[in-house]
Design brief:
35% strand; two-stranded antiparallel ribbon; three-stranded antiparallel β-sheet; mainly beta
Length: 79
C-alpha cells in the first residue's frame, strides 16, 4: 500500500460508474459567456430538483448575478 504524506494534495472523490454528473452553468448577461456556478447535480435528478434563487460573482465581468433553475445550462463537470 502506498504511503501518503501530510503534504500530499487531497485526492478527488471517485465518481461511481453509471452516474452522470453535470455542472450547473449560467450565462453572463453582459458577455453572453457561460460561467460555472461550482455546483453539480446528477443529470437524472435535475428535472425534479428544486433550486432557490442563487447569487454568483461572474468570472467574466466581475458583477454579481442572480440565477434560478430556468437560467441553468447543464454541462460537463470540470475534471
Amino acid at each position: 500500500m502506498a504511503t501518503r504524506f501530510l503534504f500530499d494534495p487531497p485526492r478527488r472523490a471517485k465518481n461511481k460508474p453509471g452516474i452522470n454528473w453535470k455542472s450547473l452553468l449560467v450565462r453572463c448577461p453582459s458577455t453572453s459567456k457561460l460561467t460555472d456556478t461550482g455546483k453539480t447535480v446528477e443529470e437524472k435528478l435535475w428535472p425534479t430538483a428544486k433550486v432557490k434563487t442563487q447569487k454568483l460573482t461572474c468570472a467574466h465581468c466581475g458583477s454579481v448575478h442572480t440565477w434560478t433553475k430556468k437560467d441553468v445550462v447543464l454541462g460537463r463537470p470540470l475534471s
